[in-house]
Specification:
This protein is α/β, with parallel strands linked by helices. It is built from eleven helices and nine strands. This is Acetyl-CoA carboxylase 1-like. Its cofactor is biotin. One of its GO terms (molecular function) is ATP binding.
Length: about 280
């Protein structure tokens, strides 16, 4: 059952009441906008007894700040699996699936297909659509949404903003918990050159690459890798890249230090090196 009012440029009010796995779901959207998106108002659906149990659980384990609510800054399978896992854990720990309030983010595209993570979340937040830099990868939007919905923590999932060290730093500045590694770890491992040097310092086997010859003592990379060592592992010109590939051996992969994923990798002949290196 659902009722929806007319939408104008400033506000949206929509309410849906439905049975999801035996529980009531109510979503109310108020006129707090991010561009073309809107944020639903806060509705507590947990009993005082449940809240008290979460507090006791936290303090018994030496925690200082109980997590009662989480913003899920992701969609699709990642969000669905997280919601189901938290619900299972909450039921086993507190005797109720609603031990933790779970707030989903929803783009117009997600809502158009009635995405599962929206349907099973306790609440949802409407955010701008389009590419993920407008929504799930937008650090500023995630932080603002977390503040508006008054959540205690943010879970980034995988992909999108999950590997952006700016997100944990920005959330920490607002007193919001980031459910993931600290920014320093993310920065160190997100940088392909830095992470490879750290692996070599720890004597972890690595594939042959332009920095295979660089030796670095473990104590030198506890905080940051010295610039002179970092630069020694890089290639800056086409000539250096060609020479490095000849040492590494073909097939070789050209990759930017902060290049992520592998969908964009294409097989090309060595003669294209000069042209392709300029795009890295």
């Amino acid at each position: 059952m659902g009722t929806t009012t007319a939408r104008d440029e400033r506000s949206v009010v929509a309410m849906e009441v439905g049975s999801v796995s035996g529980f009531q779901r109510i979503s109310t959207m108020a006129g707090v906008g991010h561009g073309s998106g809107y944020v639903n108002g806060a509705i507590s659906i947990r009993s005082p007894a449940t809240i008290s149990e979460v507090d006791k659980f936290c303090y018994a384990l030496g925690g200082k700040k109980p997590i009662h609510s989480i913003l899920i800054a992701n969609n699709g399978m990642a969000a669905v699996k997280f919601i189901r896992s938290v619900r299972t854990w909450a039921y086993e720990t507190f005797g109720t699936e609603k031990g933790i309030l779970l707030v989903a983010m929803a783009t117009p595209e997600d809502m158009r297909i009635n995405a599962e993570h929206i349907r099973i979340a306790d609440k949802f937040v409407e955010v701008p659509g389009g590419t993920n830099n407008n929504n799930y990868a937008n650090v500023q939007l995630i932080v603002e949404t977390a503040e508006i919905t008054h959540v205690d923590a943010v879970w980034p999932g995988w992909g999108h903003a999950s590997e952006n060290p700016e997100l944990p730093d920005a959330l920490n500045a607002k007193g919001i918990i980031f459910l993931g590694p600290p920014a320093t770890s993310m920065a160190a491992l997100g940088d392909k050159i830095g992470s490879s040097l750290i692996a070599q310092a720890a004597e972890v086997p690595t594939l042959s690459w332009s920095g295979s010859h660089v030796k670095i003592p473990p104590e030198s990379c506890l905080v940051t890798i010295p610039d002179e060592i970092y630069r020694e592992a890089c290639v800056y010109t086409t000539e250096e890249a060609i020479a490095s590939c000849q040492v590494v051996g073909y097939p070789a992969m050209i990759k930017a230090s902060w290049g992520g994923g592998g969908k964009g990798i294409r097989k090309r002949p060595a003669v294209d090196m000069e042209t392709l290196f300029a795009f890295c």
